[in-house]
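Now for today's protein:

——
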Amino acid sequence: MKRLIAPLVTLLLLLTASAALQAQDRSETKRYLYLSTPDAAQLEGQAEGAGLLIFDIDDGHKLVRRIDIPVFEDGLRGLAGSLATHSLYYSTQNPRIGAFDLETDQVVWDRTYRLGSDRSSITMDGKKVYVPTGWWISGEESGVLVLDAENGDLIKQVRVGSQAHNSLVSVDGRFLYLGTTRMLTMLDTEDESIVHQIAPVGESGGQGVFPFTVDSANRYAYVSLGNHVGFEVIDLEQERIVHRVLVDGEPILHRTHGAALTPDETELWISDQESRKLFIFDNTQMPPVQTGELDLSQGGHGWVTFSLDGRYAWTHTPDVFDARTKKKVATLRDENGNPVSGSKFIEVHFRDGKVVAVGNEFGLGRR
């Protein structure tokens, strides 16, 4: 009898462990959109208060709750997320940079700097935060601050061009892309050494390189034009502009402020602020070919990005679009039913209270 008990106990333990693993696999993943407020770059659609509004992506983008963060009163310039540290890194107009832990809903650190802070980004390992000094900073001091993501300490300052504005880290984590006045710089995230500098990019008269995106192979960058509705395609290997594409093939004198690739990289969407429109391009051919347009409910800073699964398109407006059907499927609203919007938002996935995926405020290719 004793000989039978030991194997039975072992079998029971194995079955229990297997059941626990299966239960874990069945744990529901909750997907949320975190929208920061107020937006330092637009007045339209502003929500009341300072902090984060959290929307349930899989429940019609309904508001779940809000988190008050008083230091956001300065106005947000950027919002970067890290899976490695399960944190958001916010940059404000003050200039201020801080870290917000998504699992505890607490500000971990908050620092004010002499320079900065525009649309920031973070390395894939969650160790370094890159902070552009801002389109309002010209001259030799312009560039990017490299901060220790654990506490906000300044590691170094890299001087790159003038009016350093937008920054993003490639999806493979290898490169930092930084836009300055008519120059796109590609840096190595290991040591921030310069890999490529492409200039002139974009159009004169703008405030630095306008919003851009990059494909997953680090082959092509797509840069918004500052004086016309359209974009430039940059071959990063050849270090040159290979195409300039205008909407309708005509010089529409509006600013383009938003460029995003669908995750599968089959389409490029750009934002025309003044006309309150999005324009869609087939990116399976080069140069990309215009295929459609969508009307937006309001103006604003101009922005567009996609959910990680490519199903939804989010903009600087309250409008949520189905990226496949091109239909508006939801409106972001506060607890009083008022439409709300901004151009700094991040997708976050939770399972059993732990962060399991984090998106990007830039519409990066993820093929």
Residues 7-25 have pLDDT under 50 and may be disordered. The chain has one domain: 29-358.
